[in-house]
Amino acid sequence: MRPRRSKNDNHPHSSNNPDMHPVARRWLSRLAMAFIVIAAVLAWEGYQSATGRRGPVPQWRILLYFLAAAMAVTLGLEGLRQRHRRHEDDEVPPPPNPES
């Protein structure tokens, strides 16, 4: 039986993951909304191609549109997650001292 991981372990999906460089997290969070917009455009193009409004389009291209849209949504949601999460390497000023 495997030992249980604690929440402080470096799980691949945790914000403490050392594999994700702070610069990569920063850019992913900055580009989150752009990825979501790109996903919407790709899904729209896939829909337009699937309904025949773009003329004859090969099936592999339609599949590629939807696959790329799914990947862009995934990157966008991960960017939003990184944007709204605190990290240990972020510089957060200490709270003001109420006694001063």
Describe the structure concisely.
This protein is mostly helical and 100 residues long.
What can you see in these coordinates?
The protein is mainly α and 100 residues long. It is built from three helices and no strands. Helix 1 crosses helix 3 and helix 2 (32-50) runs antiparallel to helix 3. It is elongated, with a radius of gyration of 20 Å.
Could you outline the blueprint of secondary structure elements for this entry?
Blueprint: H1 22-30, H2 32-50, H3 59-83
Gyration radius over CA: 20 Å
Largest sheet: none
Order of helices and strands: HHH
Task: Count the E strands.
Answer: 0
Q: For the terminal residues, how far apart are their CA atoms?
A: 54 Å
Structural class: mainly alpha
Helical region count? 3
Shape, please? elongated
Summarize model confidence as the mean pLDDT.
Answer: 81
How much strand content do the residues show? under 5%
Helix % is 40-55%
Contiguous low-pLDDT stretches (5 residues minimum) are none
Tags for this entry?
100 residues
